[in-house]
Amino acid sequence: RVLFRSHPSTITKIISWQIEHYTADFPSFDHDDWSAFYAPWVERKEAQLPIMLGAMSNGEIVGAVAIVDRDDLEDVDEYSPWIAALIVDPELRGQGTGSLLLSAALERCRREGIDRVYLWTHDQSDWYLRMGWAEERRQIFRGVDITIFSRRP
């Protein structure tokens, strides 16, 4: 697997994984919502957030993660930046791709001089705790219990 800055042509595949993963709990995370999420990355200047990283295997995208200034949450303006939208091809989960992407995102944050980064999850709290993340708080987001985590890159 080789990490690279994801090319815009991979967005359709990544969006389909996001929709599959989130739709049951977050129906408002539809194709338009995910397209809007990725649009600033596609149009961004090199030195600005968002930053998108992807994992490739045999020339195909197998996962992606973003580093963004703000996430969808309200009342968390004190938290920035965020690691967001970590997703792995559903057929390849459990093989270390998510860990690889998370490590690459943290390394990029270190290189950018970021001293603390945040993320939230509705279904992977135990995994993030095992990966060294600290729970900041729990709250309800769009009717779903989520946990906000932080850590130093």
Q: Which characteristics define this entry?
A:
153 residues, alpha+beta, 4-stranded antiparallel beta sheet, 3-stranded antiparallel beta sheet, 31% strand
Descriptive account of the structure:
The protein is an alpha+beta fold. The protein is 30% helix and 31% strand. It contains 4 helices and 7 strands; from the N terminus they run E-H-H-E-E-E-H-E-H-E-E. The strands form 2 sheets. It has a 4-stranded antiparallel sheet, with helices on both faces. The protein has a 3-stranded antiparallel sheet with strand order 5-7-6. Helix 1 (11-22) runs antiparallel to helix 2 (31-43). The two termini are 22 Å apart.
Helix count, DSSP H or I runs of 4 or more residues: 4
**Can you count the beta strands?**
7
Sheet with the most strands: spatial strand order: 1-2-3-4
Overall geometry: globular
Distance between the termini: 22 Å
- The share of residues in helices is 25-40%
Largest sheet: 4 strands, antiparallel
Report the uncertain regions: none
User: What percent strand?
Assistant: 25-35%
**Would you tell me the structural class of the helices and strands?**
alpha+beta
Written as H for each helix and E for each strand, in order along the chain, the element string is EHHEEEHEHEE
The value of Rg in angstroms is 14 Å
Oligomer: single chain
Q: What is the average per-residue confidence, as pLDDT, rounded to a whole number?
A: 86
How is the secondary structure organized here?
Elements: E1 2-4, H1 11-22, H2 31-43, E2 51-57, E3 60-68, E4 82-88, H3 97-111, E5 117-121, H4 125-130, E6 134-141, E7 144-151
Antiparallel strand pairs: 1-2, 2-3, 3-4, 5-7, 6-7
Helix pairs in contact: 1-2
